[in-house]
Amino acid sequence: MCGITGWVAWERDPGAQQPAVEAMTQTMACRGPDAGGIWYGGNVALGHRRLAVIDPVGGTQPMVVEEEGRVAAVISYSGEVYDFPQLRDRLRSLGHRFHTRSDTEVVLRSYLEWGDDFVRHLTGMFAFALWDVRSQKLLLVRDRLGIKPLYYYPTADGVLFGSEPKAILAHPEARARLSSDGLRELMTWVNTPGHAIFEGMFQVRPGHTVHVSRGKITETPYWKLEARPHDDDLDTTVSRVRDLLRTAVAGQTVADVPLCSLLSGGLDSSSVATFAAEALRTRAEPLNCFSVGFSRGGPDPAARGSALVDDADYAAELAGHIGAAHKDIVLDAKLLSDPTTRAAVLRARDLPQGLADMDTSLYLLFKAIRQHSTVALSGEGADELFGGYPWFHDEDATRAQTFPWMYMRGAGAPPGPSFLDPALPRRLSLDEYRADRYAEAVADVPVLAGEPEQERRMRTVSHLFLTRFLPMLLERKDRMSMAVGLEVRVPYCDHALVEYVFNVPWSMKTFDGREKSLLRAAVASDLPEAVLTRKKAPYPTISDPDYDHMLKGRLGDLMDDPAAPVRALMDERSASEAFNTVQKASPEELRFLRVGFESLIKINDWMRDYRVELTE
């Protein structure tokens, strides 16, 4: 896993402006702490920072491949292609010779063999830039589900690109501007594919390739979810899901560095850990598992201690069942409140979007894991794929003409006090923007002829979660992990598994009336009964009043600062009323309001640290 960046300039030589390229590359050092390099070639510069996972000695980048003694193509690559050994054998049979054991060289030679169609041969998570010296063309490629990020920023005579916005913004020609559409994305959480919040910047969409040639930038899809008839009966479907998941997990345990598994003791992570332990056992390698929890806080010393949320007992039981070593990472309010840590989390995200303290705790969890492992397996994607969220099982939410996760029962007013200008939603036409993005998302859903209305509706819901909701979580996971040089793999996002389960009828996914019935049946013989039947639990959050006291202090500092950048979006009267409400709130009410006023603090810090210019 790595960080990539670069610059194509058709009218200039980026090599003549090396400080700019070096600054862009240096921003990716957190993603690649092991090594770095830059390749210059006329109108292009490719930068790379490496986290060595496969072939630590031979996988140096940017990597060059030659034909008849001449450089044919160069790549700056981030990610893992899990089936690279099989691909390498196939390419060898076609006459290719390899000089490394890395998957990077396999990707390069796949391009030489199959041209632009090569990406269809790759299975894994990846984002990379490939420069074809022969045709003077740049390819920006992102994996099918969007597990690894990739951004680009067209310029007057070319394009800047990077794994994260910070790499692009390090170039003097890129500006951190926020337009009305950027504000709309921030305030609605619709997560429009390709949108990057910053004005003039874009994301390569999942399953797409961006072609950059002189005077032309085009984006083309190479993969998307398709609607197909499902002819397997229930028993066959259950068996097929188990085989696909087991194969995906086993394939993702390949690494030349220490590997572990995240373990909450829930169905999703327990299934991954179980199959990972099985795969490693065949190689006589142990599996280490890690969980996160919080020490109890409060004024009563008797209430303090090392007790964790309920995850700990279930995780320990699963670890014992599969013979894995298990470690709890215990966090407290002091750790989550640390200003340096909070600044690092914002820097990792590049944006003020997030899940309050859950982002910080995830960062700290990954930072602790990185002391033991370089690669971790995680359960992201299971809820979206198998229907684990409550919204899937709320008929009103699935029938609402909006994204299910935005549906609210009763009055539509957002919970808690608002510090922002109450006229802002109307001025930005947020309701219309949200409705337009929802209509676009629904229009993208593949249709199966003759499908019953209920099945068609649930196919739509599944598609919305897989293409709009899951990418938000994958982005969060990538940023928090790569900020500390940890590679996190997500077996539930294996595209073969996703393609199969997406087309399983909803009635079969919920055949026994519970959430994730199909997944539970698929792993029934592998998990302890207590873990198998455990009710779904959310990611844990801190409940220490010391943490909320810290937030109130930060909020007070913001309100006392007339130069706070976020004040451009605030209404003074509304903000004052909201602040008074927060000041009087009980500890329980504060936890409920936390996401709202922590978001305000993040937006202010982001606008200040990134020197964001409002262009609305």
Protein model, in words:
The protein is built from 23 helices and 19 strands. Helix 7 (267-281) links the parallel strand 14 and strand 15 (288-294). The chain has three domains: 2-221, Glutamine Phosphoribosylpyrophosphate, subunit 1, domain 1; 234-298 and 306-387 and 475-532, Rossmann fold, CATH 3.40.50.620; 545-614, no CATH class. The longest helix is centred in the last third of the chain and has 30 residues, at 453-482.
In short:
Helix content is 41%, strand content 17%. By secondary structure, the chain is α/β, with parallel strands linked by helices. Helix 2 packs across helix 3 and helix 21 packs across helix 23.
Write the layout of secondary structure elements.
Blueprint: E1 2-9, H1 18-26, E2 35-41, E3 44-50, E4 63-67, E5 70-81, H2 84-93, H3 103-114, E6 124-132, E7 137-142, E8 151-155, E9 158-162, H4 165-169, E10 177-178, H5 180-188, E11 202-203, E12 208-213, E13 216-221, H6 234-251, E14 259-262, H7 267-281, E15 288-294, H8 311-322, E16 325-331, H9 333-337, H10 339-349, H11 357-369, E17 375-377, H12 382-386, H13 395-399, H14 424-427, H15 430-443, H16 453-482, E18 487-489, H17 495-502, H18 506-509, H19 517-522, H20 529-532, H21 545-559, H22 572-584, H23 587-609, E19 613-614
Parallel strand pairs: 10-19, 14-15, 14-17, 15-16, 17-18
Antiparallel strand pairs: 1-3, 1-9, 2-3, 4-5, 5-6, 6-7, 7-12, 8-9, 8-11, 12-13
Helix pairs in contact: 2-3, 6-7, 6-17, 7-8, 11-16, 21-22, 21-23
